[in-house]
Design a protein that fits this description.
The chain is built from eleven helices and nine strands. The chain has 274 residues and is of the alpha/beta class. The protein has an eight-stranded parallel β-barrel with strand order 1-2-4-5-6-7-8-9, surrounded by four helices. Helix 7 packs parallel to helix 8 and helix 8 runs parallel beside helix 9. It is globular.
Length: 274
Amino acid sequence: MAILRCAAILWVVSAVGPSASGQLIIGHRGASHDAPENTLAAFQLALEQGADGFEADFYLLDDGHVVCFHDKDTERIAGKKLLLAQTPFDELRALDVGSWKAPRWRGERMPTLEEVLSAVPEGKKIFIELKSGPEIVAPMVKVIESSSLARDQMVVISFNADAIAESKKQLPHLKACWLCRFKQEKDGKIPPTADQVIATLKRIGADALDAEAVPEYFNEAFIRRLQEAGFSEFHVWTVDEPEIARVYRDLGAASITTNRPAWLREKLEKPESR
């Protein structure tokens, strides 16, 4: 697989034309390589590292709160297993979600959508990943409508196609991108084809694809097919390998999401060694 991966990278790089410019560097769950993911500290650090914005994950709780967290339960991050959707906000808020990363982050708390939106400064973006289904959209709309952020500062993303469809229905003025994986599954299941992806994008009214950065599958031919179908914009995640980032930079990705914003930007700005 490693040999195939390298071959695919070399093929893509050799096939493209001149380098594109202007890609956004987006901090995955903030600067999550250095700080505890999905915390205000991680988002602030991503901005300090020069990211153009950050991506954050959101769940809808049974009590109506929309909180920033990735997993379905809190065991990995907080050391205590609580099911997110079924636990009251006050109980989740009491958890330390920072010290698992390092002692310096002790006391970080699970933020709400309101708090995360308030952490986005002028000129920066937030990619709002919906971890719940379409039921999260109406509560999210209430928060967004009370936010001072400009429309073009927010992008809604989700693997849940129905959540994207509902987002476009209730927030047609916000860009919404469908997230898609491209790694072959252990059971041998092959990732979706370009035509299958295009059919989903059209069905749900998505503005663009936000794709897993796997050049073996998501390559120049795939991207050209998207563009022919009217989807000229695409994004990629989660890229911590400079050679992969260069592939998608040269193919014209609108944004590259990474755990290491400053480090990856530095690598991309350096001339490639020959």
